Amino acid sequence: MKVLLAAAEIFPLVKTGGLADVVGALPGALISTGAEVRLVLPGLPAILAGVEGLTTVCELGALFGAGRVTLRLGRMSDNGVLTYVIDAPYLYQRTGNPYQDSQGREWPDNIQRFALLGWAAAHLAAGELDPLWVPDVLHAHDWHAAMACAYVASHPVQRVATVFTIHNLAYQGLFPVEDFHLLGLPSRLMVSQGLEFHGSLSFMKAGLKFSQRVTTVSPNYAREIATEEFGCGLDGVIRARGAAVSGILNGVDGSIWNPARDPLIASNYSARSLKGKPLCKAALQKELGLRVDAKAPLFAVVSRLTSQKGLDLVLAALPNLLQGAADGGAQLAVQGNGDPSLEAAFTAAAASYPGRVAVWLRYDEALAHRMMAGADAILVPSRFEPCGLTQLYALLYGTVPVVREVGGLADTVVDATPEAIQSDVATGFMFGPATTWGLDQAMARTLDAYRNPPLWRQLMLRGMAQNFSWEVAAAQYLALYGELLAGAPGTGQISPA
Ligand code: ADP
Ligand code: GLC
After folding, report:
1. What pLDDT does 492 receive?
2. 379 with 406: CB under 8 angstroms?
């Protein structure tokens, strides 16, 4: 089975969040499970520099405002996965992140930049760009690649099966309707049953309406997005797809996130010998300017700073968490960047509690590993969370997650209720309503458990024993692709009309 994955970011070359980790790990897992996988990525500077041995597949000429577009093929340097790179200097050769300039403004031509990604994926799938390799399945990730599904649906040759994965329904790729003509698509698609969304043009809807199957990154989020509370205005569209929408939980790349072999942490450790973990904690406290104190419960946050992540609750709960500043009082380390008001509030908190609150407002992959290894507990109080990867990394690093009962967090953490502790399945602490009180209560329970070393050790070891291997997810994706290729009932190509 030949599978083409289309996405805008990939670890380790370009990463703004968990999407990159998934796109970095999924191809290898699918290949080990028996599929033939290639990627198609935009030719951002780090991608052109990081994909090895690029050769020209074809010249595409002038497209989407770019005077010259060339399709190249090379291999990812870390795992050798064959990767098509869309080399369009006018659209992609820029500093900043894939979506925004260095001032945080959306690139004004994002409609063309991501339409080109979808267009190239769809035309590769039609066998027009590289006749030597024609995929059976086109799997597009998030709104950035979603237009691939509309281009396939409007193409006269529709032999490829299409799967669209939602990593975050809140980012939809909305553009002015007046720009529809830039896409080169038939006008019959620009209707409420197609790409139109409350007077805008929605790339997300291209994936939701024109793919054969829609997946998202946890079973719980798949249920949630069919409700008004979590549907971001698209719950009706999602409900209308019925059983074509499902959840497949993300995995963890064990070659990157494994405390026994992680070269980025102060001391390696495993469930068999936890001796290295306190060394990691002391090293982290020292590095961040926290008081070096083995007894102080150290809470960490590693996150984009956006309203999604519920970190305003952490700010509001901070005085309670830190009260009783005697030896052994709790500490907080925050690593993240994003919303300037959250950045300022955390900076102010660090200034108010020197030695007890540390804030690192930068993107730093190596520090994220040291945070996972050095902290005692990680806070993920998200308002919504499609899957969440940091709680998975934390579990495997023996760092107890304190999470809101939402999305993938609820699928991956088992709350330490007396029954769960009794039956030794508890892995963390969970709270329901997104309120300061809810987080307060969960953190108070966490502190109680921390003061009970045998219980804390039990939670750590149960977490470290979790299996979030990508093999499980890859097998589920392959089964889904297989159903489409076998022409399972009700999964025929969706007509764009
Ligand atoms: P999301 O994709 O919504 O941001 P996830 O939990 O799925 O949330 O993934 C976040 C990823 O980004 C994780 O790999 C996490 O370690 C990483 N990350 C977030 N903020 C930072 C940061 N400031 N520095 C390094 N890594 C970060
Ligand atoms: C998104 C979600 C996050 C998920 C990640 C990878 O960025 O916000 O919950 O883990 O994608 O699928």
Report:
1. 44
2. no
Residue 314: inside a domain, yes or no? yes
Q: Which residues form the domain of 146?
A: 2-251+471-485
Quote the number of domains for the chain: 2
pLDDT for the residue 315: 97
CB distance 363 to ligand 1 below 6 Å = yes
Same domain, 435 and 480: no
Is ligand 1 within 6 A of the CB of residue 376?
no
The C-alpha atoms of residue 373 and residue 369 are separated, in whole angstroms, by 6
Q: Does 265 reside within a domain?
A: no
Q: How many residues does the chain have?
A: 497
Above 70 in pLDDT, residue 44? yes
Task: Please tell me the number of Cα atoms within 13 Å of 422 on its side-chain side.
Answer: 3
Does one domain contain both 246 and 284? Answer: no
Q: Do 215 and 328 fall into the same domain?
A: no
- Quickly tell me which residue has 């509309």 as its tokens: 150
The percent of the chain in helix, strand and coil, each rounded to the nearest 5, is 40, 20, 40
Residue 117's pLDDT is what?
Answer: 98
Residue 329's pLDDT is 87
Among 60-69, 115-124, 156-165, name the one with the lowest average pLDDT.
Answer: 156-165
Nearest protein CA to atom 22 of ligand 1, as residue: 363
Q: Tell me if 270 is assigned to some domain.
A: no
Cα(65) to centroid(ligand 2), Å = 31
CA of 235 to the centre of ligand 1 (A): 26
Domain CATH for 99: 3.40.50.2000
CB 424 within 8 Å of CB 484:
no
Q: Residues 473-484: pLDDT tens digits?
A: 999 999 999 999
Residue 440 maps to a domain:
yes
Paired tokens of 441: 């209560």
Q: Span 22-30, mean pLDDT?
A: 98
**pTM attached to this predicted model:** 0.97
Average pLDDT of the segment spanning 76-94 = 97
Q: Which of 304, 306, 362 to mutate to test the pocket of ligand 1 (most atoms within 8 A of CB)?
A: 304
Instruction: Examine the domain organization and report whether 110 and 178 are in the same domain.
Output: yes
Q: Are residues 411 and 398 in the same domain?
A: yes
Same domain, 458 and 476: no
- In angstroms, the CA 114 to CA 472 distance is 30
Where is average pLDDT lowest: 155-159, 182-186, 203-207, 434-438? 155-159
Q: Is residue 220 located within the same domain as residue 281?
A: no
Asked if residue 349 and residue 300 are part of one domain, the reply reads yes
State how far the Cα of 404 lies from the Cα of 388, in Å rounded to an integer. Answer: 11
